[in-house]
């Protein structure tokens, strides 16, 4: 019974063998020779869609939101490869018609654990964010589990004896145990934070176990005294949302004399003040961003600051966006040539002083940074600073003599 659309029914996998076409409104209560012969189904697709778009500018509404999705997409590698996307645990891929057929993966966000058995049993393999052209257990994955722990600041404690007894070793980073005294000595463990992969052999090789916070193991079975390498799982790319807190903006302004010209006319007629009617100076705008001393943002993470809030301030000339990257200078400077006009003459019996004055403005705005890593969010603050000195004018002072 086809509720919507039209489908092609194939006798064999990979779009092969005899077919039947199933269409909405044409239900088939009984198959004849095709009974119990159906192996593959695909919906028919429409031709290219024609779309006419009209922007209704008078109805414009603005909203801003950030969406983070932790997902895994499995692909069947065959002539007509199919894919499925999952964003939560899948205890049994049979229920998704996707059992024992995954040949490649793409992971977005937090890591996933793939198991050869249903209900998260069998041999596990771990896939962190990235694309995988092949998988270790090709066509042999039956369940998928999303790692939801906070993977920042991981810690695991290994114990030499069962039930967390004997010597212990506390680790918070990837470690090859063959270089110490704990190789093939572990019989139990506790995970304080994060999630870890435990390897049978050095350099991430051999069979593995996945250790997760809240799932302590008091006694190993066949894995007893076989642990040689451990590493913490890493979260997907960090997402950073930056919000300028314009209501907390602070400004300081000062004026500085950058040049001065004086002329004296002792006569009864006006005299030429200078042969130059203009004078040229250099003005500049410098933007910068400063992280807090306790920032937990890692090197290489980028985000954009929207500084369009300056658009109503004619004295400030900055771009709409400022890119910040942890580990870089996070400073942007621009300069321009500014000409100011000078008086052509000095009145009779007058001393004329012309000062060229630069107006220097500094604006400081707190920036709220919302940092999302996997399923966990935290907030910290930084500061955006704009120093502008491209407003130059002249001041005249006349003294009778």
UniProtKB/TrEMBL annotation:
SUPFAM superfamilies: Aerolisin/ETX pore-forming domain, gamma-Crystallin-like. GO terms for molecular function: structural constituent of eye lens. The keyword Repeat applies. It comes from the Eukaryota. GO terms for biological process: lens development in camera-type eye; visual perception. The keyword Transmembrane helix does not apply. CDD domains: PFM_EP37-like. Residues 110-148, 154-193 form the Beta/gamma crystallin 'Greek key' domain. Belongs to the beta/gamma-crystallin family. PANTHER family: BETA/GAMMA CRYSTALLIN, BETA_GAMMA CRYSTALLIN 'GREEK KEY' DOMAIN-CONTAINING PROTEIN. This is Beta/gamma crystallin 'Greek key' domain-containing protein. It comes from Hemibagrus wyckioides.
